[in-house]
Amino acid sequence: MAETTGTATPEAGSAANGWCHWHQGTSGTAVLITVIEQGSGPGAALYACAPCREQRRLVPYGKPS
Ligand SMILES: [Zn+2]
After folding, report:
1. Ligand 1 centre and the CA of 54: distance in Å?
2. Domain range for residue 36?
3. In a domain, 2, yes or no
């Protein structure tokens, strides 16, 4: 069982973490919105729930607007 958790890859697996960074709370509908690239270390992935996406017109990461 070699799990490499050293690098945060905001793709498969982490999408269902259930956290919305916009209202700073848990959510069952949170999806990845954007990834903040950082010079060193893992980037920060931001997730938003459905209501927050509607309010702020956020587009899920990787989808054409
Ligand atoms: Zn939210």
Report:
1. 10
2. 14-48
3. no
Using the mean position of ligand 1's atoms as its centre, give its distance from the Cα of residue 55 in Å: 9
Read out DSSP for 53-65?
Answer: HHHHT---TTS--
Q: Is residue 21 part of a domain?
A: yes
CA of residue 50 to ligand 1 center, whole Å: 7
Kindly report the pTM of this predicted structure: 0.65
CA of 19 to the centre of ligand 1 (A): 8
What would the pLDDT profile of 7-55 be if each residue is shown by its tens digit? 544 444 444 469 999 999 999 999 999 998 888 887 889 999 999 999 9
